Amino acid sequence: MAYDATKLKDFEIAEQAEKNMPLPYEWQEKLGLQKDEVIPYGRICKLDFMKIIDRLKDKPDGKFIEVTAITPTPLGEGKTTTSMGLVEGLGKRGMNVGAAIRQPSGGPTMNIKGTAAGGGNALAIPMTEFSLGLTGDLNDIMNAHNLAMVALTARMQHERNYDDAELAKRNLRRLDVDPTRVEMGWIIDFCAQAMRNIIIGIGGRMDGFMMKSKFGIAVSSEIMAILAVAHDLKDMRERIGKIIVGYDKKGKPVTTSDLEVAGAMTAFMRNAINPTLMSTAEYQPVLVHAGPFANIAIGQSSIIADRIGLKMFDYHVTESGFAADIGFEKFWNVKCRFSGHVPNVSVLTATIRALKMHGGGPKVVAGRPLPEEYVKENVGLVEKGCENLVHHINTIRKAGINPVVCINSFHTDTKDEIAAVRRAAEAAGARCAMSEHWLKGGDGALELADAVIDACKDEVNFKFLYPLEMPLRQRVDAIAREVYGADGVSWTAEAEAKAKAFEENPEYKDFATMMVKTHLSLSHDPALKGVPKGWTLPVRDVLIFAGAKFLCPMTGSISLMPGTSSDPAYRRIDVDTETGKVLGLF
Amino acid sequence: MAYDATKLKDFEIAEQAEKNMPLPYEWQEKLGLQKDEVIPYGRICKLDFMKIIDRLKDKPDGKFIEVTAITPTPLGEGKTTTSMGLVEGLGKRGMNVGAAIRQPSGGPTMNIKGTAAGGGNALAIPMTEFSLGLTGDLNDIMNAHNLAMVALTARMQHERNYDDAELAKRNLRRLDVDPTRVEMGWIIDFCAQAMRNIIIGIGGRMDGFMMKSKFGIAVSSEIMAILAVAHDLKDMRERIGKIIVGYDKKGKPVTTSDLEVAGAMTAFMRNAINPTLMSTAEYQPVLVHAGPFANIAIGQSSIIADRIGLKMFDYHVTESGFAADIGFEKFWNVKCRFSGHVPNVSVLTATIRALKMHGGGPKVVAGRPLPEEYVKENVGLVEKGCENLVHHINTIRKAGINPVVCINSFHTDTKDEIAAVRRAAEAAGARCAMSEHWLKGGDGALELADAVIDACKDEVNFKFLYPLEMPLRQRVDAIAREVYGADGVSWTAEAEAKAKAFEENPEYKDFATMMVKTHLSLSHDPALKGVPKGWTLPVRDVLIFAGAKFLCPMTGSISLMPGTSSDPAYRRIDVDTETGKVLGLF
C-alpha cells in the first residue's frame, strides 16, 4: 500500500495521499467530534479546543510519547518523519493514535529547500498549506506582536510631544520609557538579516521616536512562546498582559498592560489558540500548533494541543524541537513543568548519516551533494559517532525516562552500521528499533511501534533537572554540565548583572530557564561534533519573557534573526497559473 | 423586521443578525453555486472565482452600480452603509442582487473606534471577522510584499560581499542596485509612524546592507493595487513580476523578476485571489476583496469581485473609495479602463452633516462630540454646502453617467434640510433619493432602490476623462482642473524630472494615473471645505507601480503611513476569555 519513496518525491507522494485526505466533516465523524468542534479552513480545519476539553474533561489521558533527536546535521535527522512514522505504525497495530507537531516558519521555507512535514511515506499532509502559512497562526502572532511595538513607539512620541496635562486629558499617565532600555523588537516571518539592527523614528515630531530597534523572526516572538505554554484563553490573556516591552527611566518594567494594548493583542490571537488538524499520509490525525526553532525559541508543540491530544487519543505523540540537549531539555524542565503532563516515553531519533558526522565525517552542507563517507558503508565512523547518541540517552535517563532509540533508516544504510547503533544503544540501557517508515509507512514502523507500546508499560519516575527554587545561574550551570557536558559557564559582565538582578527579584522565582543555543552541537559552537570535551558555555545576555515566564540565557553568537543565503529557496518557487498549484516548494 | 437602530449599537444588531447568517453550504444552495466553488473559513467562506467565471462565462452581465460619496467629514458619510442599504432595498424589490466592498485595514481599526462594515440596519456581517483580518488577504499581501524586500536586502548584502566569480557559482548576475534609489519599502497593517523613515542593515557584513528604508501601511502596497486590478491568476503572476524595487547604478529598473522572487510572492497570494463572501444584515451576498484608502491607494473593490458579481447577480453594487474626486475618478479612469466594465449608474452618497461642514460649519473631529450646528436644523449651512455635492455630480456627468444622489439620512435631519438637498441635486440634473436604510434596512431604501432601477434603464455614453495617449503631466492637469476644480498644477523639480522621464519611456505609455491626495477636501489641503477656488495642486513626487501599471503623483503632504493617535482604539479592545468574543471593537 506504500508509495515508492525511492522514485517519487515527497510532494508527489503528498499529492497522491491528499486526494483521499479526510474533509472536515469526515474528520468529525472519524474522531467522534461534535459538529461545532470542527472549524473548516478550506480542506483543512481547526479544532475548538475549549469545547473538546470541556466535553472530555472526565476521560483519562492517553499515553504520552515525546519524540526528539540526536544532534543533527544541517539537513535534519527526520524527527517529524519519525513522529509521523510512529503514528502510522501505532495505527497499523490498531491503536487510537494521533500527534502534535509544530508549524514551520516562512524563514527556512523561503531560504532552504524542503519542509518540516516529514518525508517519504511518513508525511504530514496537506504539504503546501503546511509550508505556506496553514490557518494563519504565524500571521496572527505577527500582528499581535507588532501591535505592541506600534503602541510603544506611538506612546513614546506622544509622551515626548505632550506635557502631563495634555496626557491627562487623554487619561494617560507618563510611562517614561527609557529609549536605551527597550527590550522588545518587531517580528517578521522571514530570514531578514537587514532588519536585525535598525534605527527607527527618523523625521519630525509626528514621525515616532528615534531610537535603535530590531526585528526577530516570528517564531522567536514571546507571543509564540505564550501560544506554546498557555493553558487556555484566560491564561493566554493574562500572559500577554505581562510582556515587558522595556524599562522606564527608574528601571521599572513597562508592560503591554501599561500600554493598554494587551486586550487588542489577544483579539488577534482568538483563532490561533485553536490547533489545526492535519493528517498523516495514512490518515491518522495530526494536530499542528506553535512553532519550531528550539535553538532560539521553546520549539515545542503546544500544551493546548497536548491537552486535547491526550484526551482524544490513547497514544498521543508530541514533537520537541531539535536535539535532545535543547528540545528534550525544554520539554522536560519547561513544558512538562508548566503543563503538569508526565511523559511515558521519549523516542530518540538517530540517522546513520548524523552518527557518521559525529564520528568525524566531513562537513555536511545543505544544498551540496553528500560526501562519499555518507553514502558508503563505514562502520568505524558510526561506532565513534555513537558517543553523541549515548550522551543524549543519558540525558533522557536523568529525567527518569528510558528512551527508545529509533534508527530512522535510509536506503544507503548497511546491516553492520545498524547493528553498531543497536549495540551502543542497548549497552547504554535503551530500547532500540530500526524503522523504515520513510520507505514503507506504518508497515515499516511496526518494530518502533511495538517498542513504544512496550516502553509505555514501564513505570516512569519522572524528575526535573533542577527545582524551581534553584537560582538562575546555578540552573544554567546544571544544564551546561549535566545536559551539554560543559566544564562550566562563563558570563559576560552584562549577562551576569542581569542574571543577578533577576535572581534577586521574587517575581521571577518561578520563571522557567529557556536556553538559547545552537542545535548543531552539544556545545555553543556549531562546528564541534560528537561530544565536545573541555569547554565552557559562554552566556552573553539574558532576555526576559515575563508573559511566557521565561528567563532566556543567550549563549554563543546565535541570533534571533537568521539570514537569507545567497541561493535561497524562493528562487525556485512559482505558481502554475492554470491550476493554482504551488511549484518548487519541496 | 428591522432592529431598533436608535437603541441598539451596530455590534448588537450584527450579533443578532449573525445568528441566522447563512453557513457556507447554505450560501452554496442559495446562490446556486457548485460544492467546490465554496471554500469555507469557519462560518464564512471564499468563492473560487476561476471555477465560477468558467461556469458562467456565457451568461450576460448584470447591471453595474458604483457607490461613491461627496467629500466626507473625518467620520465618513456612510458609503458602505449606503451600499448595504441599496442591496437590501433591491432585495426587497425582489431583485437578484449582491455587492462588492473593500476589506478594512488594521490601521484605522486599531486607531479609530469604528469599522468599515456600514451601520444600523445596513451592515455587513460578521463584523468582528470583517474588522480583524477576515480570511487573511492582508496578511498574504504583507508576506508577499515583505518577501520582496527580504530578497532585495539579502541580495544587496551578498553582492557587496562576493565578487562576480562567487556570484556566478550561485548562478547570480550582479544587479548592482543603487542604494540611494531603492523605491520599495516594507509594509505593516498598522499606523506605525515610527517606521516611516528608518535605517536598516546596521552591523557587520552578514547583517544586510546599510541604507535608508521605510514602511508603508499594507493597503498602500503595490500588491494590494495588483489584487484590485488583476484579471486572473495569470495576470496577477505577470504583474507581480514587474514590480520595480529600485534602480541599478546605470538607472535601469530592478524588478522582483530580477530578484527571482515573483513566483514565491505569488505563492503567498494563492488564496487571497479569491473574494470572501459575507452578508448584509438581510442576508444578501456581499463579496469582500481588496482594500480601502482611495487617498493613498486605488481603494476600489477588485475587478475579480466585479467579474463574478456581474455574472452571479442581476444587480451588482460595487464600492469605490472615499469622495468622488478620488474614489470615483479612479473607478472611472483606472478601474473601468482596466476591466472593460461599463457602469450603468453611480450613487453619490451625501449626509446633511457633511453638507453643513462644507457650508461653513465648525470642524468635525473623530472622537469628540458634534458641535450644535450638526444636530439642530440649519438649512442655510446645508444650502451653501450643496456646492460640494453639485461639484461631484458634475464630475460624474463628465463620465457620461447621470448619478443618483442618496441622502443617507440620520434621525437629526429635518424635512427642510432634505428638501434643500433635493432641490440642489435635481437642479444639477441628477436623480435624488432620501434613504433610511440605517433605521429601517431594505424597507427604508425602497426610494433609493427604485431610483437606481430606473437609472439603470438610461443609456450610458461612458467616456474617459483622458485618452491613454495623453502624457502624464497633461493628465494630472486635466484631473486637477476638471475633477478637483484647481487652477493648475505645480511640480517640484524632482517630481517634474520623474514625470518627464516616465513620459519619454514608451513602456509606461498605457500606465494608469493613480493620484495620491487627501479625501477630506477637493484640494490637497484637508482644511479647505466646500469647493475651494483659486488654488494650484502641488505635486511633490511621482511613484511608479510597474506591476499594477500605475504612475502615482503624490500631492500635498499625504503619507503612505498614517500615524497612531494619542488615544487609539486598541486601548478599549479586549477578549471575553470565557466566550472568546472580542469586545470594544465598535
UniProtKB/TrEMBL annotation, chains A, B:
Q: Which reaction does it catalyse?
A: (6S)-5,6,7,8-tetrahydrofolate + formate + ATP = (6R)-10-formyltetrahydrofolate + ADP + phosphate
Tell me the residue numbers annotated for binding ATP: 73-80
* Name of this chain's protein: Formate--tetrahydrofolate ligase
Read off the InterPro entries from this record.
Answer: Formate_THF_ligase, P-loop_NTPase
Task: Please give the organism.
Answer: Desulfoscipio gibsoniae DSM 7213
The kind of enzyme this is, by top-level EC class, is ligase
Q: Does the keyword Lipoprotein apply?
A: no
GO terms classed as biological process: tetrahydrofolate interconversion
